[in-house]
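Sanity check

After download, print the first record. It should look like this:
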Amino acid sequence: MDLDDVVTRLDSRLRTDAYADLDASANGLQVDGPAAVDRAALAVDAAHATVETAVDRDADLLVTHHGLVWDGLDRVTGRTHSRLAPLFAGDCALYVSHLPLDGHAELGNAAGVCDVLEAEDREPFGALGAETIGLQGRVDDEPVDALVDRLSSALAPERGVHLLPFGPETVERVAVVTGSGVDWLDEAAEAGADLFVTGEGKQYAYHEAREAEVNVALAGHYATETFGVRAVGALLAEWGVETTWIDHPTGL
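Expected structure tokens:
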């Protein structure tokens, strides 16, 4: 498949341009590559380990959630050079989708978490400018412990999910912003969420959750952000591109 065609299709499907002024990440094609894409690798992070693995697997394209260019690129030295060099040597392109992939209603990370929770009647959540980066939805009076167990089994079977248990024992509404999303805790409370799911926490979240009487599940930054790139991989496979998943969990 033509690389330009892949990029155009992904940019359109993920609404990349809508987040251009909202995201520090340079979303879309960050590193050019071969004219044709026969095999694509998918990973959460564009790091030396994942870049080298993609090249070792003969990928023509690496698609990641976290890319290499944030707020511009001043110098190609040190760690930046060590990450870019294998892409150039292996003639492998890099496509990145950060915030556009977080809240996408079908392909996004929050959508994947909502699938685990079996949330219905989903609506956009997590306002950022004129766009959103998460989802909210309804569950049928589920015990909060059961939902946390479901998240733990799907996302963190070894270390589990950390719960701040300050909301009701039975959950009717959930809100999700993956990754580092605790800044949207107040919005979750205002939306009537009984459970707010995000990746990692910050110190202030404990007291804010307690005072707002909202349960907060911290399910891991990496773990909550594997869904989007996997969904993009499935989409590429539908377009006739062979795909390979690179799992490199951080434990965070």
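If your output differs, re-run the checksum step. Summary of this record's structure: The longest strand covers residues 131-143.
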